[in-house]
Each structure stands twice: as structure tokens, then as C-alpha cells.
Amino acid sequence: MRAPLAGVTLAGATLAGATLAGATLAGATLAGATLAGATLAGATLAGVTLAGVTLAGVTLAGVTLAGATLAGATLAGVTQ
């Protein structure tokens, strides 16, 4: 069973290398979090606050980012 993550606040969390494939994080706050090397394939990040997030080395294949805020995010090495 997957934990419900829609609308959660994970600001500043260290989620490097986490497996969040297919997760629904719609409306969540991840500002300043570290997601370097995390698996996000197929995740729903619609309306998520990703300001200042580190996404280095993350693959965004099939990820929904509609309405997400990415201001100041580190996107080095991000692939589709």
C-alpha cells in the first residue's frame, strides 16, 4: 500500500535516492528539499512547490509537473 502524499509538507527534507515512482504528490510542498538521484518516473507533481529543490540526476520520464513551481531549483543532470 502506498502512503498518501498529496498535500504533504516535506520542505527541506532529504529524499536523495528515494523511490517515489508513480507517487501522487499533488499540491505538496517540497521547497528546499534534496531529491538528487531519486526515482520519480510516472509521479504526479501537479501544483507542487519545488522552489529551491535539488533534482540533480533525476529522471522525469512520465512525470506530471503542470502548475509546479520550480523557481531556483537545481536541474543539473535531469533527464526525460
Please characterize this protein's 3D structure.
The chain has 80 residues and is largely without helices or strands. It has a domain at 53-80. Helices cover 0% and strands 0% of the residues. It contains no helices and no strands.
Low-confidence regions: none
Strand content: under 5%
Shape: globular
Portion in helices: under 10%
Distance between the termini: 27 Å
The largest sheet, given as strand count, sense and whether it forms a barrel, is: none
Number of helical segments with 4 or more residues: 0
Radius of gyration from CA coordinates: 11 Å
Number of strands: 0
Structural class, please?
A: little secondary structure
Mean pLDDT comes to 93
Question: Topology, please?
Answer:
Layout: no helix or strand
What can be said about this structure in brief?
This protein is mostly loops and 80 residues long. The chain has a domain at 53-80.
Key phrases:
little secondary structure, 80 residues
